[in-house]
Amino acid sequence: MQKTNVASIAEIALFAGLAMVLDIFTQPLSLGPWLSLSFKMVPIFILAFRRGTRPAVLAGLIWGILQVVTGQAAGGWLNLWQGFLEYFIAFSLIGLAGVIQPLFEQTLRKHQSLRSWTTMILGILVGSLSRYIVHFIAGIIFWGSYAPKGQSALIYSAIVNGSSWLGETLACIIALGLLFPFIKRFLLIS
Ligand code: 218
């Protein structure tokens, strides 16, 4: 595991701040009622691929805390347990995107270019799925009363969180795919 140093602490703050700025100043790109693209997780993924899992988990946690203390989370905050789960735990888990790169480093040394794209996409999937599993569970437990009449809490949560997971994940894969050739030399992925 990498030693924490001043540069990585500064980058944790920087990338958490960047995610927060995107959160405040950008709007999801709506592609219809069920799909809107949102790029806000990109800074956390970049940090995960640059510094590894631990710094990225910390940056995700800070982003979650920032949303709560700035009032940005108000619409998504029902009570302490739910808020803790969906802002502190869920956002921290985005950083798990960093677990893939060390695995690939050890197991797949050949096929350089294929490896880097696979690492990036798998990392994004692991981070975003980990986050959204928490939102899905919280959706069943805490948001069930918002379900349309006749729809179970489970189905409601699967639809709501499934569609925002898809929009966020697709957007991050597209955005990082476009950025990747330009930022590659700043990442652990090669
Ligand atoms: C069914 C349902 N509705 C709302 C929420 C709350 N939720 C979902 C996804 C992401 C976030 C964090 C802010 O973007 C929140 C609070 C839910 N879990 N389930």
Ligands, deduplicated: ligand 218
Query: Runs with pLDDT <50, length 5+?
Result: none
How can the largest sheet be summarized? 2 strands, antiparallel
User: Helicity range of the residues?
Assistant: 55-70%
Radius of gyration: 17 Å
Mean pLDDT: 93
Coarse morphology: globular
Q: How would you classify the helix and strand content by structural class?
A: mainly alpha
Portion in beta strands: under 5%
* Distance N to C terminus: 19 Å
Spatial order of the strands forming the largest sheet: 1-2
- Give a count of the beta strands, DSSP E runs of length 2 or more: 2
Q: What is the helix tally?
A: 7
Order of helices and strands: HEEHHHHHH
Description:
By secondary structure, the protein is mostly helical. It is built from seven helices and two strands; from the N terminus they run H-E-E-H-H-H-H-H-H. The protein has a two-stranded antiparallel sheet with strand order 1-2. The longest helix has 31 residues, at 112-142. The mean pLDDT is 93. The structure holds ligand 218. Ligand 218 binds next to helix 6 and helix 7. Ligand 218 is lined by residues 76, 86, 135, 138-139, 143, 156-157, 160-161, 164.
